[in-house]
Amino acid sequence: xxxxxxxxxxxxxxxxxxxxxxxxxxxxxxxxxxxxxxxxxxxxxxxxxxxxxxxxxxxxxxxxxxxxxxxxxxxxxxxxxxxxxxxxxxxxxxxxxxxxxxxxxxxxxxxxxxxxxxxxxxxxxxxxxxxxxxx
Length: 135
Prior knowledge:
Layout: H1 34-87, H2 92-102, H3 110-134
């Protein structure tokens, strides 16, 4: 069998006017001038990505700062709630603040996010206990 006869007949496959790949040097070679245009295109593509990465890192750092502050505030509110319970009464405003602090955006740092989730879970448990006890 010689090949496929059809519209173009039997012929050599490959680009008609494109660069030729030779086996000299054992690798792929770009035509002259392609390296400079490839480097220029890469630099242009990297600029927006670099700015986006920088902005994302700033956003992640801001989320981490807010998450750490929320965790500290929740721990203070839980500690105060504990002291109030030992005295015999819990401040309803404290429970409302605790409920607001338990909700919010998760930090970018996985360890901080896990710690914050654990503190928020404890706060929700205390809120649930108080709502059941109030009935």
